[in-house]
Design a protein that fits this description.
alpha+beta; 39% helix; 4-stranded mixed sheet; transferase; 272 residues; Ribosomal Protein L22, Chain A; P-Pant_transferase_sf; 4-stranded antiparallel sheet; 4-PPantetheinyl_Trfase_dom; 4'-phosphopantetheinyl transferase sfp
């Protein structure tokens, strides 16, 4: 049985696919059209990076280039989940900011990556469980009280204080002085969100229906745990990590830890 693999790449290493016409001959028709359609260069680079990571993953899985590039080899499920018509491998894609993520497995899998940023309270109120929302509120209040007590005489801006606080937490984690579940309210919010997204993308359900009843309040601080839906533990297993200010979540059916690969090469016409 092959291990689940997760590939990550920065779009900073990707050239605009419109620059090189030979990409049209290399990519399957549906992928080429999807890649060059966006008006913004960054969106085109994201599409190309996603395809490149999937291509690399499929080749490493032992799938021939002819099958990978065959027109009509891919399709989208009822709620937009991309799949291969030949189900020899399952995959999922995600992107946020400058990063693109690709996960592959023998079984259904979902992945999500999000840049850690300010809490969107209306979103949390709408989609999170009562326990999750209350946790964020309590954590936010604690941080506010700490900030009021620590910055009265510091003269630093809010942004400087936030950066300094996160750097201090990271240093303490590295020294082993605080547990993994010591995080900011922004990080906790992002964790709840990527866990949800990875589950929805794994199941292939619509966003609204799949989010109903989900609760990940007990998963914080766990490196390998299961969420709940309507009070019952989910069968799926979740893996999480932080990378360069981003949160990543993988939802699958295997208990073994996924293999994580960061691709640092440059994608341009030389790839061909």
């Amino acid at each position: 049985m092959k291990n689940t693999k997760v590939y990550l790449m920065s779009t900073e290493n990707v050239k605009d696919p419109r620059t090189f016409s030979s990409w049209k001959e290399f990519l399957p028709k549906e992928h080429w059209e999807k890649t060059v359609r966006p008006l913004k260069e960054e969106d085109r680079k994201t599409e190309l990076a996603a395809w490149f990571l999937l291509y690399q993953a499929l080749r490493e899985w032992g799938i021939s280039e002819e099958k990978i590039n065959a027109d009509g080899a891919y399709y989208y499920g009822e709620h937009g989940k991309p799949m291969r018509r030949n189900e020899e491998i399952c995959f999922n894609l995600s992107h946020s900011g400058k990063y693109v993520l690709c996960a592959v497995s023998e079984m259904e899998i979902g992945c999500d990556i999000e840049k850690i940023k300010e809490v969107k309270w209306k979103l949390a109120k709408r989609f999170f469980s009562e326990k999750e929302y209350d946790f964020l509120v309590r954590l936010g209040r604690q941080e506010k009280l700490m900030k009021q007590g620590e910055t009265v005489k510091s003269g630093k801006t809010d942004k400087q204080e936030k950066v300094g606080k996160q750097q201090n937490i990271n240093r303490q984690k590295e020294k082993g002085k605080i547990k993994e579940n010591a995080y900011t309210v922004e990080e906790a919010f992002t964790r709840f969100w990527v866990l949800r997204e990875s589950y929805v993308k794994k199941t292939g359900e619509g966003l609204g229906a799949a989010l109903t009843g989900l609760d990940f309040s007990d998963i914080l601080g766990q490196k390998n745990s299961k969420g709940k839906k309507n009070g019952e533990f989910l069968e799926e297993t979740f893996f999480e990590m932080e990378y360069d200010g981003y949160r990543i979540a993988i939802c699958g059916e295997k208990d073994s830890k996924p293999e994580f690969v960061v691709y640092r090469g440059t994608i341009d016409n030389c790839f061909l």
